[in-house]
Amino acid sequence: MKDVIKWLLLGCLCLGTTQFARAEVAPATDTQTTNTQATNTQATPADQPTLAERQAKAEKKKAAARKAAARFAKCDKCHDGEEGMHGKHGSVTNPNTNETVTCTNCHGNASADHRKQRGGMVDVMRFGDEAFPLSQQNGVCMSCHEPDDLRKALWAHDVHATRVTCTSCHQLHPAKEPMVGIPEKSRIKLCVDCHSKQHEARQQAAVKEGA
Amino acid sequence: MSTTRREFMVGMSAGALILMTGSPRALANSMTIEGVRYGMIHDETACIGCTACMDACREVNQVPAGVARLQILRSGPVGEYPDQAYRFFRKSCQHCDNAPCVHVCPTGASHIRVEDGIVDINPDLCVGCRYCLAACPYQVRFINPVTRIADKCDFCRKTNLANGKQPACVESCPTKALVFGNLDDPQSPVAMRLVQETTYRYKQFLGTSPKMYRVPKGEVAS
């Protein structure tokens, strides 16, 4: 093993490039990526779209972004700072409209009166609020997120979709969604915390019924 | 009294038939081993498949990565979305009363402990020949990459049980889907559950008499 490392180091020194100096750590993967990069640059000119097509596409994208920004700006007037959208949903495309996701896509079209309706009449969707039925809340998420994709991410989506709100675990507004890339141990802790509480509550209910 | 060959054969067959098909009910508390006889129930209707038990087992018993004493096998989903269900199966040592791994062990390392019925491995006698790995119908044994001997669940005999606690998996279960205790004590929680509930034992037809009972979820497959 030591011999191999020694020869590798020698080879790197001979080449003297900064890129290959990294080969000490992962020689195999490094050379592989440089190879694929080379082939990619050779292949691309043949199937590139024409200039006009590209410009049209860029224009369209810009227009959509402007539109979205305008909508965001409207809400941002009051709902700024912490409340604003800092997560991935601020830049993704809504598959139903093919435009950037905006506040109203999820929270519904708010009437001018929505400022007055705290606790009373409700026309702005508030996630995690008991005033909105579970099916209505999750229905918003499910209009874009397909069950198959959710199952691929985690099988437990299948058995929770009609029982708890998506926002019980997920948070969309912060820059970092807490469930993305969650370590396995933390994931298990989530299950355990919730289910042990549920189990205790059930036990107590059973005891009460018995008494 | 004269008996023809035909009559003799008929009589013997009938006798054998009665003997072999006799009482189909096997008692959980056999009273064969003096003292304690540890067993476990896995309630598959209560299990949520969170795998907290797997993590706890690995941590408490210091099981190296790549091998496992306990696995929760998930199967499914069954049914149409969003009305779907999964099944969870606990794969770990069944602590058979009639253990094939013990019968095949050439050195006597694999044994059933007289004091508590736990199927255990004597590390000083095991030569790592893997005969037990091949013989176990439940495929729960492995060679520990650190100690280089056969390893498997021992109901935390050297760790949690020695400290007067329940096995790690039982302690960590959030829905109390695992019940552990002395099968020979009619007052133990595990024995009380067994008389109340319909349970099954995996691959029981092999005659291994496993001490791992399971409460089935839905239809029983085996």
Descriptive overview:
The complex is a heterodimer of chains A (211) and B (222). Chain A has 211 residues and is mainly alpha-helical. Chain A has 2 domains: 30 residues; 133 residues, no CATH class. Chain A is built from 9 helices and 2 strands, in the order H-H-H-H-E-E-H-H-H-H-H. Chain A is flat, with a radius of gyration of 26 Å. Chain B has a single domain, classed as 2-Layer Sandwich (Alpha-Beta Plaits). Helix content of chain B is 23%, strand content 18%. Chain B has 6 helices and 9 strands. In chain B, the strands form 4 sheets. Chain B has a 3-stranded mixed beta sheet, with helices on one face. Classes of the chains: A mainly alpha (211), B alpha+beta (222). At the A-B interface, helix 9 of A face strand 2 of B.
Which keywords apply here?
heterodimer; A: 211 residues; mainly alpha; two-stranded antiparallel ribbon; 2 strands; flat; B: 222 residues; alpha+beta; Alpha-Beta Plaits; 3-stranded mixed sheet; two-stranded antiparallel sheet; 6 helices; 9 strands
Topology:
The complex is a heterodimer of chains A (211) and B (222).
Chain A: H1 2-15, H2 18-21, H3 27-43, H4 51-76, E1 93-94, E2 99-100, H5 103-107, H6 134-142, H7 147-153, H8 157-160, H9 184-210
Antiparallel strand pairs in A: 1-2
Chain B: H1 5-21, E1 38-43, H2 52-61, E2 71-78, E3 85-91, H3 100-104, E4 110-112, E5 119-121, H4 131-135, E6 142-143, E7 150-151, H5 168-172, E8 178-182, H6 189-196, E9 212-215
Parallel strand pairs in B: 1-9
Antiparallel strand pairs in B: 1-8, 2-3, 4-5, 6-7
Helix coverage percent of chain A: 40-55%
Number of strands of chain B: 9
Strands across the major sheet of chain A, in which order? Answer: 1-2
Radius of gyration of chain A: 26 Å
Structural class per helix/strand content of chain B?
Answer: alpha+beta
Quaternary state of this entry equals heterodimer
With helices defined by DSSP (H or I, 4 residues minimum), what is the helix count of chain B?
A: 6
